[in-house]
Amino acid sequence: DYLPSINLNAWFLPNELVLRYNWGKTVARPPGGRMIPSGTCFYDERFTDQLDADGEPRAQYCSGTMGNPSLEPMTNHNQNLSLEWYPNKNYMLAGAVYRQEGVIGAPTLVEAVSAATLFPGSTQIDSQTGKALADQQFDYRRWINQLPNTRTGYEVSGKAAFTFLPWYLRYLGVDANYTRNKSKLTGTAVRDLLTGTVMPVAGEPHHSWNASVWYDDGKLSARV
Hints:
The protein contains no helices and twelve strands. By secondary structure, it is mainly beta. The chain has an eight-stranded antiparallel β-sheet with strand order 1-2-5-6-9-10-11-12, with no helix packed on it. It has a two-stranded antiparallel sheet with strand order 3-4. A hairpin with a 4-residue loop joins strand 11 and strand 12 (221-223). It starts with a strand and ends with a strand.
């Protein structure tokens, strides 16, 4: 699959003030650990006619969350509009607004699967029970893609190099940024079964920020 992109720049003040626009298709592949087999399934014929506290057959159970080879990569169509100001070589200040339209959701949800046959087509027979392995059913959990969502927000960021300081301190600098996100599921909504309120997108913070102090004298560089 190809990943098209468009980048446009307009310099209002040469080498000082620039407006940038970007559109692009992005893909993030699922973590390998969520696609490969994982977890363990058990069958204990001593409990064939018993149910556990949740009403599930006690004779069979699976531990952990199973990998799902059918997971798809998260796919977005992204737009970004930013205004960047470079008053001199030591400072930078930028603000941006963005829209990320989801096409395929992130592989972050866990789905419960009931009465599934894990070995369809198998000709093996359980030597103890005489039952066909292909007919043995299990309940288990697996990773799935969540519904795609459209994310909008803004970001402000800045950088400064402290070249006005004396001694080795003139090689220090700081970077910082703050981001505000707001997302909604595309085409539908997931509601809380008790209150009816719309549930937020799983695993996504509304606010994020980071800051760092760095040193760079051309020979040694470090960042915290």
